[in-house]
Amino acid sequence: MKKLDSRSRQEYAEHVIDLLQKEDEAQFRDQFLELHPTDQLSIFHTLNQTERKRLYAYLQPQEFAEIFQGMEFLEQEWVSRELNDNYIADMLNDMYSDDVADFLGELPEEKRSSILTAMDKEEAADAKELLSYPEETAGAIMTKEFLAVKADNRVSDVIEFLRKEGPDAETVYYLYVTNQEDQLVGVVSLRDLIVSPTEEKVENIMGTRVVSTKVTTDQEEVASLIQRYDLLAAPVVTDDGALVGIVTVDDVIDIIEEEVTEDIGEISATRGATDVNLSAFQAAKKRAPWIILLMFFGMITAGVIDQFEGTLEEIVILAAFIPLIMDSAGNTGTQSLAVVVRSLATGSFEKKGLWQTIRREFSTGVLIGLSCAIVLVGLITILYGNLVLAGVVAVSIFLSLSIATVTGALFPLIINKLKLDPAIASGPFVTTVNDILGLLIYFTIATSLLMYL
C-alpha cells in the first residue's frame, strides 16, 4: 500500500476525491485502495454525506472495515447511522473481535442485538463473550484472533498452518501451545519456527515459562505486565488455565492513554469531562459538582481567616501575604501528589516503600521551603523594612511547604490503601487542605509575635 508523503498528501487526496465525484468507480477503487488505512480515513473525513454514501457503495464492507477500525466511537456511531445493519454486520465480521466488542458495547441494546443477529455466528459468539466480561479487565479487551498449536505438532505442519490462518490473526510473532484440554502449556516464537528443522516437534522448541494473565485481571495490571516483560502480546487464560484470548501491545497503548486521561480528570477534578467532544452543558454538568464541593471547602478557608480577624485589624499588612502562603503551599502539595500518583501507577512506589517516599517528599519540602524563606527574608526586609514581619512570613512558608509535601504524598497513599484510584486525591482537594494548614501556621505565628510587629 502506498503511504503519502507530506508534500503530495493534499494533492493526491484531491485527485481521489475528484474521481469519486466523477463517479469513476474503477479508477477510484484502484487509487483509494492503494492507500494506507490512515490516509484513507483522512480522505473520508473530508467527504460530504453524498460522497460518503457513494464511497460505501464503491467499497465492500471488508474494505471499509479497516477505515472504520481507525475511528473513535462517536464517529463510528454517526457513520453506522448511514449504513444498513447487513453492511455493518459484514464489516464487523472482518474486524478483530476486541474492536467489534468495543463498538457494540457502546450501542443501545436493541441496535446491538440487531447487528449481532446479522453477523456470522462464530464472530457474534466471540463478540458476545468479550461483552460478558467486566469492563476494564483482560477479558473485555482481549482479542480472539490468536494462533494456537499442539505440542506434538511438527514444525512443517505449524508453518503450513501459519500460512493458512496467519492472515486472520492479530499477531503471528507468537504461537501458543495448548494441551488436549486447551490449557496453555507453552509458547513458541516465529523465529524459533524458522530456524528449527522441519521435522522437529513443537514441544522440543517451545518455552514453558509463559507469562500470562487471567481474564479478570485489571487492564492496568495487564498493561504493566506487557511493559515489564517487553511483550508484543500476553495470553489470557481462565482460572483453570484454558487459553481464551490475547492482549496485544496496541491495546496496551490505548489502555495507557485511557488511564492517563482518567488520572488527569481525577487530579484536576474534571473526571468524565476531559472529552472535548462534550457540549458545554454536558461539561458543566460533570464539572459543576466538583466546583460546588470545593467552594464549601473554601468556606473553611474563609473561616480560618475570620478567626484571626483581630490579628489582621492590628497588622493589616499581614493580609498582603495570604495569597503567597496559600498558593505556595497548594502548589507544592500538588507536585507531591502528582509524583506519588505517578509512582503508584508505574509500580516504582513498591520499590521505594512508604517511609522512604514520605521521607524524600518531606526532605524536598524542607529544602524548597528553606530556599523560599531565605529569598523572602531579603525581599520583605528591603521592601517593607520590617525584619520581624520578614521572619514571620519566612518561617510560615518554610513550615507550610514542609508539611504540604507530606500532605500531598499521604492523600493518594491513604486512598490507594482503601482500594480506590489514588488519582481521586485530586489537586484541588490537596490544594484546599494545604491552604487551610498554611493559613493556620501563618496566623498562629503572627498572633504569637503580634507585639513585635
UniProtKB/TrEMBL annotation:
InterPro entries according to UniProt: CBS_dom (IPR000644), CBS_dom_sf (IPR046342), Mg_transptr_MgtE_intracell_dom (IPR006668), MgtE_N_sf (IPR038076), MgtE_transporter (IPR006669), SLC41_membr_dom (IPR006667), SLC41_membr_dom_sf (IPR036739)
Domain CBS intervals: 142-203, 206-262
Major place of residence: membrane
Domain of life: Bacteria
Annotated membrane topology: Multi-pass membrane protein
Bilayer-crossing regions: 288-305, 362-384, 390-415, 436-452
Record carries keyword Oxidoreductase: no
Keywords in alphabetical order: CBS domain, Cell membrane, Magnesium, Membrane, Metal-binding, Transmembrane, Transmembrane helix, Transport
Keyword Flavoprotein attributed: no
Family: Belongs to the SLC41A transporter family.
Purpose: Acts as a magnesium transporter.
NCBIfam families: mgtE
Subunit structure: Homodimer.
Protein's UniProt name: Magnesium transporter MgtE
